[in-house]
Amino acid sequence: MKRNGKSADTVCPVARSTEVVGDRWTVLVLRELYMGASRFEEIQIQTEATPQMLATRLKSLEADGMVERHPYNEKPLRYEYRLTEKGKAFYPVIQALRAWGETWVKREDEEIAVRFTHRVCGHEVGLDGMCPVCGVPVERRDLDATLSATFAREREERREAFKAAKG
């Protein structure tokens, strides 16, 4: 999809990929979809994007084949957003950003924000996307997530602030 009237005039896959997911807001939208959010309001609350910004990112992700809209309410018409196979295939990139962030951009006194447990064996999966017990690579659908108390509180505070702002 062209962004700002331009497209990557290159065969470089990195440049072409950043045409689809090359901004903070798009990556945060995808993070929320991987965390199970599917409705506009919840994605907006957790990304803290403006409605216009979020609508633009979701439309772009839909046009790029990363998400699909599905109606969940007829009157008024409301949609939820679901990852396509292409969107699901981006998960290792999110996992790599998570691992890098946990290693390099958090304070030493902070705990891991999200811990993942392999559903098959019940053991925690580290930051490398491999089950240390089974020795197999895992995908998001193979994992149960547990938020740290701090991250869970942060997300709940966003919900409460959003509700208070709406009146």
TrEMBL record:
The keyword Transcription regulation applies. One of its GO terms (molecular function) is DNA binding. It comes from the Bacteria. Keywords: DNA-binding, Transcription, Transcription regulation. It holds the Pfam family HxlR. InterPro entries: HTH_HxlR (IPR002577), WH-like_DNA-bd_sf (IPR036388), WH_DNA-bd_sf (IPR036390). PROSITE patterns: HTH_HXLR. Residues 12-109 form the HTH hxlR-type domain. Signal peptide: none annotated. This is Helix-turn-helix transcriptional regulator. It comes from Trinickia violacea.
